[in-house]
Amino acid sequence: MKPSKKTSLIAIVAILLAASAWWQFGPRYPAKWTDLDLMVLQRLSLDSLPDLEPDPTNAVADDPRAREFGHKLFFDMRLSANGSVSCATCHQPDRRFTDGFPKGRGIGLSGRNTRSIVGTAYSPWLYWDGRKDSQWAQALSPLEDPAEHGGNRMSYARFISTDPEYRLLYEDLFGELPDFSDTSRFPETAAPLDDAGANAAWQAMSDEDRLAVNRVFSNIGKAIAAYERLIMPGPSRFDTYVRDLLNGNSESPGSALTDEEILGLQLFIDKARCTECHNGPLLTNNEFHNTGILSFPGDVPDRGRIDGLKKVLADPFNCLGQFSDDPEKRCAELNYVRTGIELIGATRTPSLRNLGGTAPYSHKGQNETIAALLDLYNRAPLAMIGHNEAEEKLNLSRRELKQLEAFLNALDAPLATAEKWLRVPLAN
Amino acid sequence: MHRLIAISCALLMAFAGVTAAQDATDRQSWSTRSGYYRVSYKSRLEPLAINRMHDWVIHVEDAEGTPVNNATLSVTGGMPKHNHGLPTEPRMTKSLGNGDYLMEGMRFHMSGDWELTVTVDAAGRRDTAIISLTI
After folding, report:
1. Cα distance from N-terminal residue to C-terminal residue, chain B
2. CA-angle at A91, arms to A87 and A97, nearest 5°
């Protein structure tokens, strides 16, 4: 008997439905990792993160008293011109030390996206353009940025010397504070800033007095850095997966990653070429790359590292400067730093750890979602300034992009930092 | 028959590649373009790893195998496939004698194929060697 048209139609629809169900819910191809893959995965795992090396430029970097002091300073809104901005305003512990905005919001609107502090103790450069070369030198900049804390070093030095609690904490660590009470020598507001009044007052001070203020100012940064050195990423499901894999537990049903995420991981280390820059256990090489990220609407293209390099070399608080505690001034990063046209429009590779919880992305928060970011790399547009290093299109399918996104979301994890450091410090 | 030859060739080439990689830090040497010198290197970071600042000792001999002292060396390089250079500007900081020179400030920031150009300048003779390595 010849099947009717209706029966054929039902059969076709049934086949299509079955095929789509298989596509959606059917068995996945489990990852077949080669020995080389396993080596690559091991190197990306947090278990491979080496112990943090001492920071010779900061004598109090690992001093428990400095951590406590820095913890208080980090959350203290009195360290701002309007009394309502602290480091934690933009670096919010609950958001993995970012703020959820495209550009930071302090007293005004900051120039770039707020980078996380997590794991930055390992980075030779700070900021998107690497204009600072240590956590303590970095911590000083926002304090004087008119759009962020908006203060000046003179007022901060005076504040530390007049607040009874901070005075004790400071002197215990760094020795006796200078007497800043003579306002003819130490005006209310003074700093080498764009603000003409503050700058004129600063220039009118003696070299010796400026040095005294700079010393206290740099020590504020060093205490904050001692605290920031504690802010470290915790193991994600990806790290558990790699650990299971290396221990031979990969076939266990309770695999830490879903099949979709595993397929994303395969793309991550291979076809999508992410590990060219997002390598090592912090998933960043901390170097500078131009990847053709489009400008923020209304902004001229960001010159990135080419300007950051000039700034870090000229920074009085850099590793080679007089406020660095390293008597040998080894400073390999600064001594062997390179320049070149590749640095035009290049920004520092961000860590991908905690990516899911730290949107929006890119140096000005241009990309609101991981999907938007992946789409950019997939299309590889021409750079608006300089040359896009990642100019080869990835040609990932929509399905592959979803898998990659699923994997990247598996990199979120609670921090490996004791809870007390993630909260406002208790008053003494 | 052709296929057999092709497979044999491929196997031989693969084997040669593996041997070269193994020898990379074991005093494999490279001749400079005009043949004035032979250079070899030893990394003070073993095994070589990405994202770590380290030093190399570069050894220079003349065509007869005599160590060359009093030379000035420079190293540049990059990843030809990625159209970018080294993340640092290494410098020769010391002549260690016996044709050895300390090159400080080496760092690689990506896994893959790197090409380093070593320029040797001694007694008015300047010549360059290209060292290929995979990290």
Report:
1. 36
2. 145
Kindly state the tokens that stand for A118.
């997590």
Q: Between β-strands B72-79 and B54-62, what pairing exists: parallel, antiparallel or unpaired?
A: unpaired
Contacts of B110 in chain A (CB under 8 A): 276-277, 279, 285
**Partners of B92 in beta bridges:** B103
Q: What is the pLDDT of residue A253?
A: 55
| Residue B9, Cβ density class (10 Å: 0-12 exposed, 13-18 middle, ≥19 buried) | exposed
pLDDT at position A6 over 90: no
**Alpha helix stretches (DSSP H) within B24-130:** none
| A171 shares its domain with A71 | yes
What is the signed CA dihedral for A356, A357, A358, A362, rounded to 10 degrees?
A: 10
Alpha-carbon gap, residue A157 to A176, rounded angstroms: 13
Average pLDDT on A279-297 reads 94
Q: Is residue A280 within 8 Å of residue B51, measured between CB atoms?
A: yes
* pTM for this model (two decimals): 0.89
Q: How far is A394 from chain B (nearest CA, A)?
A: 14
Q: Do A276 and B87 touch (CB under 8 A)?
A: no
Residue pLDDT, tens place only, B11-48: 444 444 443 343 444 579 999 999 999 999 999 999 99
Structural domain span for residue A246: 31-46+235-304+344-409
Would you say residue B84 has pLDDT above 90? Answer: no
Tens of pLDDT along A17-28? 766 665 555 444
Collapsed DSSP state (helix, strand, coil) of residue A58: coil
Q: Which residues of A touch B90 (CB under 8 A)?
A: 336
Question: Do residues B71 and B64 touch, judged by C-beta distance below 8 A?
Answer: no
Same domain, A222 and A354: no
Average pLDDT over residues A151-158: 98
Same domain, A165 and A203: yes
Is there a domain that residue A59 lies in? Answer: no
Considering only the beta carbons, identify the residue of B51, B89, B110 that sits closest to A336: B89
Closest CA to B41 of B18, B24, B20: B24
CA B6/CA B11 separation, integer angstroms: 9
**CATH code of the region B29-134:** 2.60.40.3340
> How many Cβ atoms are within 10 Å of B46's Cβ, its own excluded?
9
Do A254 and A270 fall within a single domain?
yes
Instruction: Specify if A375 maps to a domain.
Output: yes
Tell me the average pLDDT across A356-363. Answer: 96
**Residues A228 and A240 placed together within one structural domain of the fold:** no
